[in-house]
Structure formats: C-alpha cells, structure tokens
Amino acid sequence: MAGQPPRNTRLFLLIALVLSAGAAPAAAADRIDAARARMGDDLPRLFTDRGVAYPPRVLLLRAFKAEGELELWAGADPAGALTKIKTYPICAASGDLGPKRRQGDLQVPEGFYEVDRYNKWSSYHLSLGINYPNRADRIIGRQLHTKPLGGNIFVHGDCVTIGCLPLQDEPIEEVFVAAWDARQKHGAKTHVHIFPARLDDASLAGLIRTRPDLAAHVRLWEQLKAGHDAFEHNRRLFGYRIDEAGRYVVNPR
To answer: What tens digit of pLDDT does each residue of 157-172 get?
Structure first.
C-alpha cells in the first residue's frame, strides 16, 4: 500500500522510535556536563581560534549527503558572515539521494530546517532533532498523497541510521554542546541545511546526467541550489519562504 513500509521495516522503525525517546533521565544524568568535562576548554578554543566568540549567536549545520559531510558554521551576528568551524564525517547513511517523502522510505530529508529538540538522554548518546516535516514537506506530501510523512529525524551519535545524520560520539558532543550553549546563552536557533550534494553548477549537472532515475527531484534541487549558491557567495544566512506549492523561494542577502 502506498505510504506504508514493509512489515519488517515498520517493526524496525517502531523499535527505533522507542529508542529515540532516549534512556531514562536517571541513567543519563549530567550527560552534557560529562561531555563538557571531557572536552575541557577545547570546544570554546575551537571557536575562538577561528575568530568566533563562544558561545556563538548564530549556528548553521550544512549536510551534504553524497559527500557524507556535515559542516558547522557560526557567527556573532545573524546578519553577518559566518565562519566555518569544522567539518565532520557523516559515519553512516540510508536511502538514496533525494528528499524524504514518507514514513519508512529510509530517506534523509533534503531542505532547509531548524533544530527543534535537544535530546540529552538519547539512546544514540546525544541527538539534535530536526523539524522535519516542515511546511514544504507537508504541502508536497498532500500533493503526492503520501501519509504518514514520518518524523524523528536527528543529528545524533553512534553510527546507525534509518534516515538520520549520524556522527561519531565525540563529534556529536561538540555539535550538541555548541548548539545547547548558543540556545541557553543567546536563545539562538541552529539552522540545518541538507543538500543531496555540493550543488555547484558542475555537481548539479553531473547529478542530472548520471542519475536520470532521480529526475523527479531536479526541481527541488534547483530550489536548494539557490540557497546553496547564496551562502557560497557571501557566507550569510539567506532568507527564504515556502510558497503555496511547497517550493523554497530564496531571498539572498
């Protein structure tokens, strides 16, 4: 049936959703403090060595699925240029290039998102929840008649995934604590931009040429490329809106 994963996949997803709720708080008490103790001054120094005061006022995670990389960018001014702090390897992958469109498809979403949950009791060590499905995903889901859309997409520790962005435990400690501290100190959002690949002109042309089976996603990729190019041009967060058709309309700054 459309929108329904196979029975064994549904069972796997059910187990994963239970795990994503996290271990009992008592079993994971002070996990952030423990991570902070292990890092010592290394995390603040990582930022200050790159000229960014810690904790930052702006955080951006940029994920590139084909390259298996997640970049951490930060800055002191929401309207100013950001600085790349570090690049982390994404240590496991599921699905293929292209967006997530339904529960159980094993896809990693593609689009512009924000962190909306900070799970310090995650069974995957620490995890940052991504606000999938966003408005664009919900509109496209209605157009495609795909229900349910799924959810519980995280940047997390450990190296297993069914649609998330897993890092090793040491990297997730850096990313999680930086996002947590920025939120606690400044009320800062952590923005998350997820791309199928680095979408320069040659890369997108290569995807179109070599993956004709993914032609249905080209319109989305062109929308994401507008944001990709805007950021590459001036390293600033760009404005965007999601129109009634579920398209990203980018407003470069």
So the answer is: 999 899 999 999 999 9
